[in-house]
Every structure is written in C-alpha cells, then in structure tokens.
Design a protein that fits this description.
Strand order of the largest sheet: 3-4-8-5-6-7
Strand content: 15-25%
Order of helices and strands: EEHHEEHEHEHEHEEEHHHHHH
Helix content: 40-55%
Number of helices: 12
Shape: globular
Number of strands: 10
Distance between the termini: 22 Å
Length: 294
Amino acid sequence: GYMGVRYRVSGKVNMDVEIDIPGKFSVYNSLVAIAVCEHFKVAEADLKEALRVVKVKGRIEMVKVSDEFILMIDYAHNAMSLESLLETLREYHPERLVCVFGCGGNRSKLRRYEMGEVSGRLADLTVITSDNPRYEDPQAIIDDIKTGMAKTDGKYAEIKDRKEAIRYVISHGQKGDVIVLAGKGHEDYQEIKGVKYPMDERVLIREVLEELAALIQELHSIGAVHQASPAQVATAWAIAKGTLPIIGVTKVRQVEEAAAAAQIILNAEEVSLLEKLGDEAGVGTLREWEKEMA
C-alpha cells in the first residue's frame, strides 16, 4: 500500500502536496521547504515534483522488494527515535509491523533494555540482530536487548548475522507487512573489534533477493525434472531435512504439498545444490516467490 502523506496547504501558497515519506514530521518538514521555495519564487510545478520524489538516505528509506509488503531502512538507534518511528508506522495500520534491529557495542546497556522494550511493545515481531558490536560479544548485546523484550509480550526471533536476519524477514514477509530495518540507516559499514567492514543494507537486500531468485529458479529446474511445482520440491527438501514446519505456507497447503512431495526423491546432487543456494528458512513464503518468478 501507499506509505506517505498527502495534504493541501492554504494561505500564501495554495496547492496539493504529496510526499512519499510517511509521518507528520514529513508535513512539518515540507512546510518549511514550501516557505523557503516561495520566498525564492520557485515555480509551483517544480516544488510539487521535488516534494513528491525527495528521499533521504537511511531515513524511512523505502526499498522495493515485493508488491505484497513494504520494507524500509531507518537510522533509529535509540529508544526515543525507535518509538517515534514505530508509532508513526502504526498509524498506517499494517497487518504486521516487523522490526529488525541490534545495538552498538561499548555503549550504554540501558539503551539496549529500552529499545528491546519499545520494539516488544510496538512491533508485532522483532528480529534481534547485530549492529556495530565493536569490542563486545554480539550475543551478549542480543541478550541485553532480550532483557528489555522480556518486559513485554512481544514476539521475537534472534538471528546474529544481519544479512541472515534480512533474509529471514524478506523470505517470510506476508501480505500487508511493514518491515523496518532499524539502526544502520545511511551507514555502509559494520564495526567489529576496531575494524570497519563494508556492510550496506541496500547491498545486503540486493544479495538476498538475487540468492532467493537463484534458489527459486533451481526449484523450478528440479521441479521440471520431477514434474513437480517449486513448492513441492521445497517441501520434499524440507521433509528430507526434517524441517517441514518451517515452510511458510498454511497448514492445509502444507498437508497438500507434503502429500505430493512424498513422491519426490531428491538425489544427492540436487540436495547439495539446494544446500549451497540457501537453507530451509530461505524458502519462506514460496507462494509469493513463485509469482515473482512466473
């Protein structure tokens, strides 16, 4: 769905405004821009177009990954900014609000407790991961965040590797979800033990999409050999690994696919190839990815 703001400004300037950045603060920011542009006699058509397309890297930055759900990147890295962000997104009434975040190492533990509590209270699902662990153990940071989460009834998963956390939320995205990757924003590195390693979430998202596409393509290819659908091949793979429940389909679809997949025997070469392309969690909601590959 649409995530932005539309309003009409009246007074010295009279025009309709559309901004593809959600939140009331976008209205306030745009009003300042309108006032400045009016002073400098910027043409109304140019002003309206600029407001419509303006983007700020790492600030509620939309990244298109699916027609079914919305994914964005934001720099929110403390409790106050995370709370403001999640409350803003709640105003759009998503089916689920999913928040992926971690906390920096060698910083206040209180921030971790607070951010865990905020996300547990406002998000439908929190995926706790790594940020910039610096000289701390990433798992110790995650455990501190979970201390804050424990004060709420919020559901959460912990996936230490940030790319795998992103893979998880994309491959398990559901129709109507709003997914926010919080904390890194504009940063293009991850700091570990004094070294800043290249890590840009936009790159990670692109890699995940390419890897999932390769996985689905291979499922199609193997399916053609076995005269089976990609979902049936994925289910046969999950059956072989003993992980059928992790496939992101309904219980009825699980039973149907499992019954058909029981007739599929994957050979060692096929299993090995699937293992290299992605684990069972990466299969995710295959009904959406099948449509993407159709």
